[in-house]
Specification:
about 325 residues, alpha/beta, seven-stranded mixed sheet
Length: about 325
């Protein structure tokens, strides 16, 4: 099939590479300009560079809403558009233009985790698996019929970075497998159960601020979700920002006020956690490694030279 590809960052790069390696013909690529947004500088392999290396025409756009782009798309005469990590709305006259419509590749197990940062949200929420879905684009974001979907398990120590590498390897088989079904003439696919749908916003600095009323199990997953190269989860100690680089759920149960720097346990320092921590039934968060405001990384047992005091959400 003749394919136009819309994509950005490493997700788009992997999709384009899969298309270039396939039997399909990539006739045009549309991608976003480089961004300084903290999350968009991560996994930033260039779709434009890859297209140009293979002699594929490239258009750079923030939004696909101008007449020049529309005319270029019509001239390209695509059988299908394939999109992955396109960051703005694609209007119906674009996604409905090709003979077979538009196939969107999304890094979640739709209908759950539509929208943005699905791997991070899924890890924080304790999902047992994550994956990649190829679905037909329609008027509602990430809501079209599912053509192909593959899942991978979330391990007990997986970080968001681990899950990125697991799922990005699914892009090629999911994309090319879905295109194979469409090229073979299949038109009926699996409708999404919209009663199970969830939609998540982009991550921001507010989302990585530690709230000590969360259960320790949730906080441990937050720390894993916000692992390098993502911005680290943080709190404040004595008015200064302190990033939590690694932590585990404590073996013991600790009661008191959430945020209290309480006890050395193994290689960590336990912080009291949970809205009902006063009951003494909760595990705490045993922080094992931190980064200070001036950029020093050190074991928590070296940073916390004495017990007592509090980690707070704000200075």
């Amino acid at each position: 099939m003749r394919v136009v590809m819309f994509g950005y960052q490493t997700w788009g790069h992997r999709t384009l590479q899969a298309l270039l390696d396939s039997e399909h013909d990539v006739v045009l690529v549309v991608t976003h300009p480089k961004s300084e947004h903290a999350y968009e500088k991560i996994w930033s392999d260039s779709v434009a560079d890859l297209a140009e290396e293979h002699g594929v025409p490239v258009l750079i756009r923030n939004r696909p809403d101008d007449e020049e782009l529309f005319e270029r798309l019509k001239a390209a005469d695509p059988d299908i558009i394939v999109a992955n990590n396109w960051r703005t709305w694609i209007p119906p006259r674009i996604f409905g233009l090709p003979r077979h419509g538009t196939l969107n590749i999304h890094d979640s197990l739709l209908p759950k985790y539509a929208g943005f940062s699905p791997l991070i949200w899924a890890l924080i929420n304790g999902e047992p698996e994550v994956g990649v879905t190829a679905h037909m684009m329609d008027d509602e974001l990430d809501a079209g019929d599912i053509v192909r979907q593959e899942a991978v398990p979330v391990g007990p120590k997986d970080t968001a970075t681990d899950l990125f590498h697991k799922t990005v390897d699914l892009i090629a088989p999911v994309t090319i497998g879905a295109l194979g079904l469409i090229a073979a003439g299949q038109t009926e696919f699996t409708k999404q159960d919209r009663s199970r749908a969830s939609f998540f916003h982009k991550r921001s600095a507010e989302d990585i601020r530690i709230d000590w009323t969360w259960p320790a199990e949730d906080l441990e997953r937050l720390v894993r979700a916000q692992s390098e190269p993502y911005p680290s989860a943080f709190a404040f100690h004595k008015g200064k920002r302190l990033e939590v680089l690694a932590a585990v759920v404590s073996e013991g149960r600790y009661g008191g006020t959430p945020g209290r720097v309480f006890y050395r346990e193994g290689e960590g320092v336990v912080i009291v956690a949970g809205a009902d921590a006063r009951t003494g039934r909760n595990h705490g968060l045993a922080i094992t490694r931190v980064r200070t405001e001036d950029g020093r990384e050190l074991p928590a047992t070296e940073y916390f030279t004495t017990m007592g005091g509090y980690l707070t959400s704000r200075p």
